[in-house]
Q: What sequence folds into this?
């Protein structure tokens, strides 16, 4: 081998090393597309802002990107109406790599182009805001793939049998050998995908389609079954299991007492019952409903009925106690909890509670918004002992069970 040949080989090897080094030094941005409405998942707000394991889906997605040290910047594309939702979602994230959001357009393609145009990096990972569980090893694979090929995406080879279904009946088996299920991130050299989006004449379902329409070769990179996209309400339960969420179950207790005074009736759980005396209190003195209200506030760790409706406030003088209970139910719903069971025990010698227990349960069904078989109202005496035994007052206690939805 001549010295010229050896010199040529060394030069080419040095050039390859230099090229690899340059690629290693190139910057990477993650663009999280979160401008959609996501109504199929339910919940009243776009799915990317719904709570999952104590924080918004989008917060999980952002944190997954920030957890990868190879990613130099993270930027979200959001709907113009979602500034407040976005701010609340990412409020607890403190990382200088998270940059200010970009406003989306009328279509996903427009939103992505808006985001790419705001990015200053060599490569971009375009990721769905509703894919909060992308594993770090999958991110590493797609980043390496982008540096190697300039255009790639995470995907899973199809392993299930594929059937064409016509009029509800399986008709033809379809080959699956060449089929992959696409995921995100979809990773590209930024200039390449920006040019493809700029030249695109029609919207596309994803950025691989935009790239293919521009004649770009795109390589699938093995993704992960964990990298699910939240689309339907049931996907939240699956995502919670994959995150390893433990079910959040709360139990609260309530106890209240009201003295008896002059009058001809008492009100218990909203039902007026004839009696030889009336309960004394700032509101309607519904001791049973007060205990249920306190049990719900207790489960939420949000104080008690006196803190929410102080007896020193004249606006609550003579007020119906269902106002207080409805507020507790409202707070549970606002915190993402469902009341699953209430058990109320009324303690008195008189009046007899049994004949009125069913009416009380029916009234509570309407206020609590749960089935009657989840509401228990029962009574006991104190065997003529103490203030209840002497007919000086009525006591009640309740337990409420709340489950995070």
A:
């Amino acid at each position: 081998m001549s010295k010229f040949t050896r010199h040529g080989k060394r030069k080419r090897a040095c050039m390859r090393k230099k090229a690899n080094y340059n690629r290693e030094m190139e910057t990477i941005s993650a663009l999280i597309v979160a401008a959609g409405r996501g109504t199929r998942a339910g919940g009243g707000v776009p799915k990317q802002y719904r709570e999952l394991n104590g924080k918004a889906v989008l917060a999980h997605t952002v944190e997954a990107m920030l957890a990868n040290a190879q990613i130099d910047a993270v930027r979200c594309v959001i709907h113009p109406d979602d500034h407040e939702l976005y701010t609340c979602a990412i409020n607890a994230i403190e990382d200088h790599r998270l940059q200010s959001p970009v406003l989306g357009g009328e279509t996903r393609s427009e939103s992505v182009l808006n985001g790419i145009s705001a990015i200053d990096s060599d490569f971009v990972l375009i990721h769905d805001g509703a894919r909060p569980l992308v594993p770090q090893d999958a991110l590493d694979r797609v980043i390496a793939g982008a540096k190697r090929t300039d255009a790639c995406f995470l995907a899973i080879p199809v392993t299930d049998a594929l059937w064409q279904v016509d009029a509800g009946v399986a008709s033809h088996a379809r080959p699956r050998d060449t089929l992959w299920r696409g995921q995100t991130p979809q990773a590209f050299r930024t200039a390449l995908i920006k040019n493809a989006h700029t030249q695109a004449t029609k919207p596309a379902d994803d950025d691989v389609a935009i790239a293919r329409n521009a004649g770009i070769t795109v390589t699938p990179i093995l993704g992960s079954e964990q990298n699910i996209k939240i689309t339907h309400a049931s996907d939240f339960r699956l995502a919670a299991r994959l995150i390893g969420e433990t079910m959040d179950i709360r139990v609260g207790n309530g106890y209240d007492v009201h003295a008896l005074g002059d009058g001809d009736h008492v009100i218990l759980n909203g039902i007026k019952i004839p009696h030889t005396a009336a309960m004394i209190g700032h509101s309607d003195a519904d001791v049973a409903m007060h205990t249920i209200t306190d049990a719900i506030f207790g489960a939420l760790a949000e104080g008690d009925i006196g803190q929410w409706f102080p007896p020193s406030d004249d606006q609550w003088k003579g007020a119906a106690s269902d106002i207080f209970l409805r507020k507790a139910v409202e707070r549970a719903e606002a915190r993402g909890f469902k009341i699953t069971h209430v058990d109320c025990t009324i303690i008195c010698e008189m009046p007899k509670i049994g004949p009125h227990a069913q009416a009380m349960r029916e009234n509570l069904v309407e206020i609590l918004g749960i089935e009657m078989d989840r509401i228990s109202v029962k009574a006991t005496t104190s065997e003529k002992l103490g203030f209840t035994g002497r007919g000086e007052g009525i006591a009640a206690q309740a337990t409420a069970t709340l489950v995070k939805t």
Remarks:
- The domain at 249-404 is CATH 3.30.1330.50 (60s Ribosomal Protein L30; Chain: A;).
